[in-house]
Design goal:
The protein is an all-alpha fold. The chain has a domain of 79 residues. The longest helix has 33 residues. Belongs to the FliE family. Its main location: other.
């Protein structure tokens, strides 16, 4: 059984319309909702590849700044290098957590009785 991204998104949107909004700000639109709506027609694999590519770019940028700082480049500051290193670290950690959730979901799906 294959689940299409569009059908899953449509089902999620129909279920979200059933949630009572009493006490909530109905005019609020979260950034996640905006992002999901903007990528509704995109391929999940392409989005995942793009996210991993972004993490790779952050890591290479961090390594480049660290090398330039070590070589004595005066245009690179220590704070810029540390910030780039932390951005790369946080992005990598988030990627690992997403991978762990995918593996966990896969295992739970595979253990379901048919």
């Amino acid at each position: 059984m294959q689940i299409g991204a569009n059908s899953l998104l449509q089902e999620m949107q129909s279920l979200s319309s059933e949630i009572p909004t009493s006490g909530l700000n109905s005019g609020f639109s979260s950034p996640i909702t905006q992002q999901v709506n903007s990528v509704a027609g995109s391929d999940f694999g392409a989005l995942l590849s793009q996210a991993i590519g972004t993490v790779g770019e952050l890591q290479s940028n961090s390594a480049s700044l660290a090398t330039r700082l070590e070589m004595g480049d005066t245009s690179v500051t220590l704070s810029d290098t540390v910030i780039a290193r932390e951005k790369a670290s946080v992005a990598f950690e988030a990627t690992v957590q997403v991978r762990n959730k995918f593996v966990e979901a896969y295992k739970s799906i595979m253990s379901m009785p048919v």
